[in-house]
Write a structure and sequence with these properties.
about 50% helix; Cytochrome p450; three-stranded antiparallel beta sheet; binds protoporphyrin IX containing FE; iron; monooxygenase activity
Length: about 450
């Protein structure tokens, strides 16, 4: 891969390297990341754990990748549809009881339930469920601790003493004990003793073969839940924020849905991702543009160089931590025409599945929200299906409108500001009104 470097680098790890990728070459073999997330000091064995060696990471990622493969996700389609239906029912109910709603927690519950049902054979009915609250708190906290600001010692090894001085390590340990160990140990134990099939049971059956211990499985489960729950919720939360200001975009999505229904004999059924996705090109573009315009994660997950690499006149030392900015890539005017403008039509010539586009050559990519290089998110297909299921249900019944102030003027959500949630970046809290559609 060719880089143009606009800031000097020296040979000492821990220095910040400002790389600007030129999308001109193929793969990034050498930048293969060694850690699941952070090859951290304070975080090791705590939040997003470094699994020790590459073989172990690959071994533990195997069942994860298997469970997230399109074939496997399709086996769970009833669960995905059920959770999307339940989400719509919950927000419809809330919308009836109050003028404006904030959908975030219900989005979290929806995506979390999908992961917990498949992995731990448990789901939660409501956002007030105390276990859901604890898991949501843990996911939130782990996103913060795993981010650059939350784990300064991992990113700047010279500053590891700061973590000790600020009692960060002790704080993390207490947090992980209270919110991860106690809660997840109970959930894992219930899953192992229950009758339902789930991922954690499979992992226990393969423990010897995979050389895993119970702690590995616990950490893996919590990483998996963290990776699959808030990411989708945040992406859909941006959807509500952005589309509440884009009536014209909603109208085109709704038109596509209505046209589909007519083509299918005015059926009461809902479109399904595998069978009908290709009949929704504009809706697909909207989903891609939302992920480009406001990426779920501004910096993705750090990678580390598994060996020293020389790029032009520069050296990236072995073990250097590489942090790339998805937000900057998405605002690159050489790659996206008028990147600051929200324009779903820019993708009309690239409506292929995001899981396919993510594996294309760099110049053929749609966006980089799921990562870049060789190692990218294995949950793309699941994410696409979940998002599709919510779109077709939401826009069959509602239009999203902004909150109004006392004088009746819309309160537009500031799309240029966001709440720093560590790894993910979500809009500042907002409310919207769901206006029921008049369906003929
Ligand atoms: C909109 C939704 C999602 C976004 C934006 C997203 C984004 C990302 C990104 C940027 C990475 C880092 C890739 C890298 O550079 O190494 C990642 C990794 C990962 N994601 Fe996702 N993700 C999403 C949904 C999901 C879902 C639903 C799952 C299912 C559990 C999932 C599971 C994972 C896992 C296990 C990893 C770690 C892979 C590894 O260590 O190689 N993600 N995701």
């Amino acid at each position: 891969m060719k880089f143009s470097l606009n800031k000097a680098v020296n040979r000492h790890p821990g220095h910040i390297i400002h790389l600007q990728l030129k999308f001109t070459v193929e793969t990034t073999k050498v930048l293969f990341s060694q850690a699941t997330a952070l090859n951290g000091n304070a975080n090791e064995k705590l939040v997003w754990r470094y699994y020790g060696d590459v073989r172990k990471i690959l071994t533990i990622l195997k069942p994860a990748t298997a469970v997230l493969s399109p074939k496997s996700v399709d086996r769970f389609s009833e669960i995905l549809e059920f959770e999307a239906d339940s989400f719509i029912e919950r927000i419809a109910q809330e919308n009836e009881n109050q003028t404006y709603i904030n959908p975030y927690e219900n989005l979290q519950l929806c995506s979390l339930n999908i992961i917990t049902t498949t992995c731990l054979a448990i789901r939660f009915d409501s956002i007030s469920d105390p276990i859901f609250q604890k898991i949501a708190r843990f996911v939130h906290g782990s996103m913060i601790y795993a981010s650059m600001a939350g784990d300064i010692g991992s990113f700047f090894p010279g500053l590891v003493w700061l973590d000790t001085v600020t009692r960060k390590q002790k704080e993390m340990e207490d947090f992980v004990h209270e919110y991860r160990d106690i809660v997840y140990e109970k959930l894992v134990s219930n899953a192992l003793n229950g009758d339902a099939e789930c991922l954690v049971k499979n992992l226990y059956q393969m423990m010897d073969e995979m050389n895993l211990d119970e702690d590995d499985i616990l950490v893996f489960m919590s990483d998996f839940i963290g990776a699959g729950a808030d990411t989708i919720a945040v992406s859909l939360y941006w959807t509500f924020a952005i589309l509440s200001q884009k009536t014209d975009v909603q109208d085109r999505v709704i038109q596509e849905l209505d046209d589909w229904r007519k083509r299918h004999g005015n059926t009461n059924e809902l479109p399904r991702f595998n069978e009908h996705r290709d009949e929704f090109p504009y809706t697909m573009c909207v989903q891609k543009e939302i992920m480009r315009f406001r990426p779920t994660t501004n910096f993705g997950i750090p990678h580390s160089a598994s060996e020293e690499i020389i790029v032009g006149n520069y050296v990236i030392p072995k073990d250097a931590i590489l942090v790339s900015s998805m937000a900057a890539m998405h605002m690159n005017p050489n790659f996206y025409d008028q990147p600051e403008v929200f324009n779903p039509d820019r993708f009309m010539s690239n409506t292929q599945r995001m899981s396919k586009a993510a594996n294309c050559k760099p110049l053929e990519r749609d966006h980089f929200g799921f990562g870049w290089g060789k190692r990218i998110c294995p949950g793309i297909h699941l994410a696409e299906v979940e998002i599709f299921n919510i779109y077709v249900r939401l826009f069959t019944r509602f239009k999203i409108e902004p909150e109004l102030d006392a004088s009746g003027a819309p309160i537009f959500i500031d799309l240029n500001d966001f709440e720093d949630y560590g790894i993910v970046a979500k809009p500042l809290p907002f409310k919207v009104r769901l206006v029921p559609r008049e369906v003929d």
